[in-house]
Specification:
The complex is a heterodimer of chains A (471) and B (144). Chain A is 62% helix and 7% strand. With 471 residues, chain A is mainly alpha-helical. Chain A folds into two domains: 1-32 and 229-471, no CATH class; 36-222, no CATH class. Chain A has a three-stranded mixed beta sheet with strand order 1-8-7. Chain A has a three-stranded antiparallel beta sheet with strand order 4-6-5. Chain A starts with 6 loop residues before the first helix and ends with a helix. Chain B is globular. Chain B has three helices and five strands, in the order αβββαββα. The N and C termini of chain B lie far apart (51 Å). The interface between A and B is medium-sized, with 31 and 32 residues.
């Protein structure tokens, strides 16, 4: 077993950008929801509950079921569409890119509780690849000739199909898998025998993993529609970005702010006050407003692969949404020079990922300054740190800061650098001590003020040389 | 908080302190104002380890305990400690990342991993409430 307490595992945690350092936002999280709220009571009270349930966006329905608890929402499950069910499987039945049957069983068994025939009906609604991939590792079939050749003890383990010329047994799997597969076969035989003959034959004869590999491609394509891009594309969101063109483009647009805007509250992100302005100014109808909100959830989904968050990890995705909204808010404030009406225009003209990349590129200027400062202290280590940062290896960069610069810079200096080189830039909020151990609590860089504070903190570690010193 | 690699020539208390720091490095985002403590000791053939997640006033105090018969399973003490803490770490991750709703049994439960048998138990405690309760009871006794 690879040690979970090794340097490698800690570097991996640091690389996520959200899991390792202790951070908390000082802004309200009211708008940090992955999807609009789905009112199950309203669906059940609708004239046509099935149509009402199926009108909900498939990922919104999935997130609502997870948040409510599928076991609590048993009345809703029979109403959802095949597409919504496949979304549940695409999110829940996988771990680390591999199909996990126990996770699928958890959901499908809820249908068994609704009615035994429902298990068959719903299983059949899944893609054929899902059906075969679930059964393939666990099904063994024998024809009459092979059956006769087996010992009596072995024969007892097989069950005859209705034709009495084919026998099946569940091989491998624990009791839960064995029960599930058997229940599925029995309920299918009574509903549509031809279907189960064909499915079992395919499952028994398919080469191992073939269907799962095929299914992986289909699943990835479907997840991509919800923003879950490949790892490479996800890493690209943190790659260097040249923001000058974007900055100049919006600088050329004059100030638009009027006096009728609602004042933002101190615990409100600039982004949220901009969204409010969009509604109040009539610039956005509710649909456009929802689309912008959804685009932020897509951005969180897009960074998830780089941040090692699985599509079914709602807590992790919510934390990524908080981080991405903060950094986008900062980028928006810079691009609009704090003019909320101009920011509305930007928000509806640019993709959140563009503003996100722009904001990160702005922080890169402080990172460059820090590298220059470190060059004076230890040029070899500074060059290595720069290489790690440019290559997007943020976890290794943070580990290296502790190891190579901790003693030279002192605790607070090293912690400030770690916040700066974190995948999502963070700023020291407070330091507390217990039993001689100091801990830094960070907050995300979310405003122009935070940026200035971070820049000042770095400049206090590496004072800019005076003209006399330069000479 | 700075970190160092675990070196197994260190004495157990030093190692445990480093391990606690490593846990905090891995799970900082979920801790809030809580922190980790790690204890381990050997009593004859039994290795016991305790990972505590707690806050300063102990209103949240979660000792996750593990134990194993290391010698009879042909494990050296350092390997056994690493194995046991690795297994306990897998639970810690599940507990923290899953909304703190995955609990261990209050009494010892046996698990088998890669052919090695070990036991875990755990219970979330609130010592602050217990302390207040004790004070209330003491007050009631005085009143009577």
């Amino acid at each position: 077993m690879t040690s979970r307490l090794s340097e490698e595992s800690v570097v991996q945690a640091l690389d996520t950008g959200w899991q390792s350092l202790i951070w908390k936002s000082t802004f309200s999280h009211k708008s940090s929801e992955l999807a609009p709220k789905v009112d199950f009571t309203e669906i059940l009270d609708a004239a046509d509950p099935e149509a009402a349930a199926q009108a909900v966006h498939r990922r919104d329905m999935y997130l609502a079921l997870v948040s409510e608890g599928a076991e609590v929402a048993l009345d809703i499950l029979p109403l959802i569409s095949a597409e919504q069910l496949v979304t549940i499987m695409d999110n829940e039945a996988w771990h680390d890119g591999k199909l996990v049957i126990h996770q699928a069983i958890r959901w499908l068994e809820l249908y068994k509780d609704v009615g035994p025939e429902q298990l068959y009906v719903r299983f059949r609604q899944l893609d054929e690849e899902y059906q075969v991939a679930f059964l393939s590792p666990y099904i063994e079939m024998l024809d009459e000739e092979a059956y006769e050749k087996t010992s009596h003890d072995e024969q007892d383990k097989y069950t005859a199909m209705p034709c009495n010329t084919l026998w099946w047994k569940v091989k491998d799997g624990d009791e839960k898998v064995q029960d599930f597969v058997s229940s599925l076969i029995y309920s299918s035989i009574s509903e549509d025998a031809a279907y189960i003959y064909s499915l079992l034959a395919m499952a028994a004869m398919m080469p191992p993993n073939e269907q799962e590999d095929l299914l992986t491609q289909f699943r990835n394509a479907r997840l991509e529609e919800d923003g879950f891009v490949t790892k490479d594309e996800s890493y690209q969101l943190f790659a260097p970005f040249s923001g000058e063109v974007l900055y100049s483009k919006w600088k050329a647009v004059g100030g638009l702010e009027s006096e009728e805007l609602m004042a933002s509250t101190s615990n409100e992100l600039f982004l949220d006050s901009v969204m409010k302005s969009a509604m109040n100014s009539g610039r956005a109808d509710p649909q456009a407003f929802d689309n912008v909100k959804r685009s932020f959830a897509y951005l969180a989904n897009a960074v998830s692969a780089a941040c090692l968050v699985e599509p079914d990890d709602v807590t992790g995705l919510t934390r990524l949404l908080v981080q991405t909204r903060h950094i986008v808010s900062f980028g928006l404030e810079v691009l609009s020079s704090g003019d909320r009406l101009k920011a509305v225009e930007i928000l509806f003209a640019e993709y959140p990922k563009t503003i996100f990349k722009f904001a990160l590129s702005t922080v890169d200027s402080i990172r460059k300054e820090a590298i220059s400062g470190l060059m004076v202290l230890n040029s070899t280590a500074a060059q290595k740190l720069e290489r790690l940062w440019r290559a997007g290896k943020f976890g290794s960069a943070l580990w290296m800061i502790d190891r190579d610069f901790g003693d030279v810079l002192g605790f607070e200096g090293a912690e400030t650098l770690k916040g700066l080189f974190n995948r999502f830039p963070l700023i020291n909020d407070e330091v507390d001590s217990r039993d001689g151990v100091q801990r830094t609590r960070f907050r995300p860089v979310a405003t122009v003020g935070d940026y200035s504070e971070l820049l000042s903190a770095i400049r206090s570690i590496f004072p800019t040389p005076s003209k006399e010193e330069m000479q | 908080m700075s970190h160092q690699s675990i070196e197994f020539n260190k004495t157990a208390p030093e190692k445990n302190q480093l391990l606690a720091m490593m846990f905090e490095q891995k799970y900082g985002a979920w801790l809030g104002r809580r922190f980790f403590e790690v204890e381990s000791h050997v009593d004859g053939p039994v290795l016991t380890a305790k990972i505590i997640i707690r806050n300063a006033d102990k209103s949240f105090f979660y000792p996750i305990e593990g134990r194993m018969m290391f010698a009879e399973q042909n494990l050296k003490i350092d390997d056994a400690r690493e194995f046991l803490l690795d297994f306990m770490d897998a639970y810690v991750k599940e507990f923290l990342s899953d909304g703190e709703e995955t609990y261990l049994a209050i009494d010892w439960s046996t698990y088998t991993c890669e052919g090695v048998e070990l036991q875990l138990r755990g219970q979330i405690l609130n010592y602050k409430i217990e302390e207040l309760g004790d004070q209330l009871l003491a007050g009631a006794e005085t009143f009577n």
